[in-house]
């Protein structure tokens, strides 16, 4: 058992998070932790609470109960702006600023939120665009890019903030199948570079290759969690097995 207080590698510690909507509890006390360099993949049926859990971590959804610690510091309403700057979030629908170029999308939060000087922010933006293979599209507007390219810009934008952790909520599910691969490849590279990430995805090739642990959620609970090898070959829980079979068949 790791000791949280002494554990300097502990990046994210989620403890007993609960959330209800209209009297229905959609998160029933979720706890998990994430260490530096770890990638955890969160799976589960539609409505199981995956997005609500990710959004509760940085208070895009306000949790009713429970606590979230980022590197030992509790995420609270009073420090949320500072905490959000340290928690990268990649959304299903990219969420880029449509009136800004790719370059401005990637540098604006560095400048406005982190107070980084403009030239430095520009250099960092190009580095991150290079990393996602888009440094040649810096002057384009989001509408001029494919969905896969837009999602890679959104990843570059998150990375440019130097986050402690990156959260991905179904980053490829709005993409045509032929564009999914280029985004998955970037995420696999990030995982092998040692980025700390929580990824909601049904891309099982990514889960197999990049996840240190897969967490299976259903109806607001964590039903089972384990390394990909164990879960894919011998999940203990019948519902985990059934779910994995369904996504193996239908992608
Ligand atoms: N803002 C909201 N208001 C009311 N109910 C909500 C809200 N957000 C989520 N819910 C409900 O909470 C439950 C969990 O939703 P959530 O979006 O977290 O599921 P999910 O696992 O991400 O599903 P999906 O795979 O479809 O994205 C669902 O029943 C959903 O209808
Ligand atoms: Mg969701």
From TrEMBL:
PROSITE patterns: ABC_TRANSPORTER_1, ABC_TRANSPORTER_2. It is a peripheral membrane protein. GO terms for molecular function: ATP binding. Residues 12-244 form the ABC transporter domain. Belongs to the ABC transporter superfamily. The keyword Hydrolase does not apply. It comes from Halomonas litopenaei. This is Glutamine ABC transporter ATP-binding protein. The keyword Transport applies. The gene is glnQ. Keywords: Amino-acid transport, ATP-binding, Cell membrane, Membrane, Nucleotide-binding, Transport. Its main location: membrane. It is found in: Cell inner membrane. CDD domains: ABC_HisP_GlnQ (cd03262).
């Amino acid at each position: 058992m790791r000791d949280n207080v002494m554990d300097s590698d502990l990046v994210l510690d989620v403890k007993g998070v609960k959330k209800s909507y209209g009297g229905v509890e959609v998160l029933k006390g979720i706890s998990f932790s994430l260490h530096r360099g770890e990638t955890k993949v969160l799976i589960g049926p539609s409505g199981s609470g995956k997005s609500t859990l990710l959004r509760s971590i940085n208070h895009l959804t306000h949790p009713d109960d429970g606590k979230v610690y980022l590197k030992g510091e509790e995420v609270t309403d009073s420090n949320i702006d500072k905490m959000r700057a340290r928690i990268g979030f990649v959304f299903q629908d990219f969420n880029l600023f449509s009136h800004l170029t790719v370059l401005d999308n990637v540098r604006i939060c560095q400048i406005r939120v982190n107070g980084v000087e403009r030239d430095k922010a520009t250099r960092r933006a190009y580095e991150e665009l290079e990393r996602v293979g888009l440094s040649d599209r810096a002057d384009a507007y989001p509408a001029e890019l494919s969905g896969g390219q837009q999602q890679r810009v959104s990843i570059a934008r998150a990375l440019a903030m130097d986050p402690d952790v990156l959260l991905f909520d179904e980053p490829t599910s709005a993409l045509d199948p032929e564009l999914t691969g280029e985004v998955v490849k970037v995420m696999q590279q990030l995982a092998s570079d040692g980025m700390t990430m929580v990824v909601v995805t049904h891309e099982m090739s990514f889960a197999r290759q990049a996840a240190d642990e897969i967490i299976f959620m259903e109806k607001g609970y964590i039903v089972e969690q384990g390394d990909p090898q164990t879960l894919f070959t011998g999940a203990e829980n019948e519902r985990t097995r059934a779910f994995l079979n369904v996504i193996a068949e239908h992608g």
